[in-house]
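Input sequence (660 aa), recorded before submission:
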Amino acid sequence: MLHIKNGKIVQVTGVEDAEPNKGRLCVKGRFGYDFIYSEDRLKTPLIKENGRFREASWDEALDLVAQKFTEIIVKHGPDALAGISCARSINEDSYNMQKLFRAVIGTNNIDHCARTCHAPTVAGLAASFGTGAMTNSFAEFAKAKMFMVIGSNMTEAHPVAATFLKNAVMNGAQLILVDPRKHKLADFAHVHAQIKVGSDISFLNSLMHVLIQEDLYDQKFVDSCTIGFKELKEKVLTYPPEEASKICGVSPDMIRDIARRLASVKPCMLCYTLGITEHTCGRNNVVSTANLQMLLGNMGMECGGVNPLRGQNNVQGACDMGALPNVFPGYLKVIDPEARAKFEKAWNVDHLPDKNGLMIPQMMDGLVTGAIKGLYIFGENLANTEPDIRKVEHELASAEFLVCQDIFQTETTRFAHVILPAAAWSENDGTFASSERRISRVRTASPPPGDAKPNWWIFKQIAKRMGQDWPSDSAREIWDNEVSQLAPPLTGIKYSRLEGDGLQFPCTDEAHPGTCFLHKDGKFSCGLGQFIPVDWTPPAEVADKDYPLVLSTGRRLTHYHTRTQTGRCVGLNDLLSEETADISFADAGALGILQGETIRVKSRRGEVSIKANITGEVPQGMVWMSFHFRETCANWLTNPALDPVTMTAEFKACAISIEK
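Predicted structure, token format:
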């Protein structure tokens, strides 16, 4: 609930009876809103001339963008252009951006930051279940009997969800935590398996080994609802606890204990975040969680399922809207002739591109090789969020023509040739999709500053200058007249139905109440659930004599990603004004490092000077940092090694050294 005075938000409060928060907000939701009134906001289009930006009118800026894009298409073809959409903006914005690239420019080179975080979720769960979304709902947390949380510091990364989990634990639910760090959630855990970074598959395979060997799995569910069990069994039987223990660092007895606990309570909710996905084996990690939950028969029921908690407020929605190189809105495949024919008719175009487009890492490589001549970045700060910042800056500097659309100048906009000023959250009507597939409305609370415009409007104006005059002229028209008619899971959702709590998709017609949990009674979207056996593989870079420690990265409670927003919220900076490197007592003692002392952290790609935070949260041999602060950003150090299926980078593991 936004409280408005004189056209400005002055307070944010939770709505007590609203799903799913029930009145609960995190510190960012409650206090992190004043950035939209910052004097730093972009208020007018900017064009770079002679290395400096000058103000321009919308007509001049849009004409220039359309002209340059057209020139590139004529000279090099449509695939020489690429776009990156925004996971923090409304659904209607991402829909219009992907439509611009497919229907007007003629390429599937459209992606967004799910590539950096949850692309392995989309790919992995779609392969296992037929759909790539969170299977269950937050409302189920409070009444669940058991949780397995793996690779997630939920207390800081998803604090509201964590409160419901903690409530359940205090009411008798069991919590099994699997994480290299002894973070705050460990205080609530009945068992904490402190596995080594990057060893998830060996651990999960070993759990399944025990379940099968001791006949503790759900044979009825496996026989009637899944395929591939024989192949899974062959694979996991090569991971006995004694062998898996050597890889994951958890004792054989603890592996057996956890397997038996999982089998003793039904159902169990499995939750994970980026500790599972941001690895070179991210997609395989995800299918391992799916294998485990199908083996236990915990699918298709309340308080069960596989529940990836999404990182940004609309990363689910940007995926749903087709801001991905391989799917249209609603996950219809771009290589499917029937799907293309459907969208060609709806968008009134003769031909849509028929091959999958480029993913973000391929786009960035293309800037250097010359394969990509023009890049359109909407609301993403790649110069801080991508691994190996020096490499990323070289790629951005290589762009022949770079357009940035944002609400602030960022480390990325420095490389732009044109900057377009956008409306922010609460300055435009629209919809978001949350982790639990809930479509909710957001309404205009205050006007955008200066001449900033809604993002969907900007894409529409570029399309018009490139020869297509789109009919929809508001976010509501875009959703009701296009999105809900084209994306099968969203067919029954209209703005008129989104008062109050919104609706969870799939929602197949206007009488449908929405879907709280997926795959009811073991009826998966793909028919039978698919067991996909996978082997453990080590991280691309492991500790050695030159770089004897492992760096892992993530988020802290108070700040949000690269601080373009929360860095302009005074109270949040008071709570956390600088980054630290979290190191163990043992490593600090061995190196003679004192609490708060400045240390140098080095990898093969760069180094940062940063204050040491000596803590019991991290085990010996591991260092942990975030990417919130520019000078001490972990991404000066991280490794751009990629998952071969999804091209998600290995943010969670690289080799480093530290010194005084």
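Checked by second reader. The domain at 135-309 is CATH 3.40.228.10 (Dimethylsulfoxide Reductase; domain 2).
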